Amino acid sequence: MFAPPSPSAIRALPAQHRARLMEFAREVSFPQGVRLFEEGGRADRFWVVRTGTVALDMRVPGRRPAVIERLGHNELVGWSWLFEPHIWHLGAEAETLVRAYEFDAAPVNALRHADPVFGQAVAEWVGNVVAHRLHAARVRLLDLYAPYGAGSTV
């Protein structure tokens, strides 16, 4: 049975717009344990994972950062570059060796503004990623910190 792609998968972007986006890609790699970005830092780029795993995490006062989601092949890492004030809302770390396509946000945003059809497609793709990540963060934080049974509706 075919499963639809995750909203964060680059396949969720229509093929013609995916091809245009990939014109801006450059190949990068990150060793295990490297931080791609920190919560609160300036968001001026984003990545699509080719191989490996990236953990998205959230600072929790008095505790280690909580891993919210793990991203892998073809998934988008980073969405804060699209929205003012362009500050990372989460942190990200390479859990394994990661090979990815890296995109500088400035030229992608310039094309978004020059080509409204492309811009709309990218905005919808990234917007779906944001909605998915917010839901994942809520579920994960409830798993970690809610009293046992707090989410049940019995």
TrEMBL record:
CDD domains: CAP_ED (cd00038). Pfam families: cNMP_binding. InterPro entries: cNMP-bd_dom, cNMP-bd_dom_sf, RmlC-like_jellyroll. Residues 9-78 form the Cyclic nucleotide-binding domain. SMART domains: cNMP. This is Cyclic nucleotide-binding domain-containing protein.
